[in-house]
Fold this protein.
Amino acid sequence: MFGQRNSLQKIIYTPILKNRAERLGKDIIKAINNCSSLLDYGCGNMILTKHIKDNTNINIVGIDMVDNNLSDMPLLIYEGGKLPFEDNTFDSSLAVFVLHHCDNLRKALEELIRVTKKKIIIIEEIYTNIFEKIILFTHDWIGNHLESWTVNIPLNFLPLKKWEGLFEDYDLIIDNIKRVYQFPCFNITNQIYFELSKR
């Protein structure tokens, strides 16, 4: 929980993450406006989760494999693989900068699709050339280790066309796709917002 975290992280890192949550949360909150439940998959520090909860009436469940929770919200820890929910449990699901942490990205996406009725929101970093790929890998490795040494970092990043192909494979409709802009220190990579619907 928050009180157990390093004081330096609370003072310096958490305010930056709150700013990030406000920027990312705007589009997410609009997208899930007609939903009553949300799964935050790989919710990490849960600051974004908390921001969404405070600005909606949606029932939110946050799930992750490690406890990096900096909020006062409950966190569900699981061992990975199959999610501990029935099919179509949630109206919507959210995966923010998390799928590239999964050893099997396709299986993770399949699970999100399985437990979600309507809307899936994914925010991921992409690359368009080898130079951007190197920057992205370096940024991810350093950024995640600043937050926690327990985060899995297989660097499973994809270019945009592969993401679009992946969504087509699973018959998902892309309702919205756009570049995400955040606090300047997070903008050195290409971050893409995908708003998806199940058919």
In short: Confidence is low (pLDDT under 50) at residues 1-6.
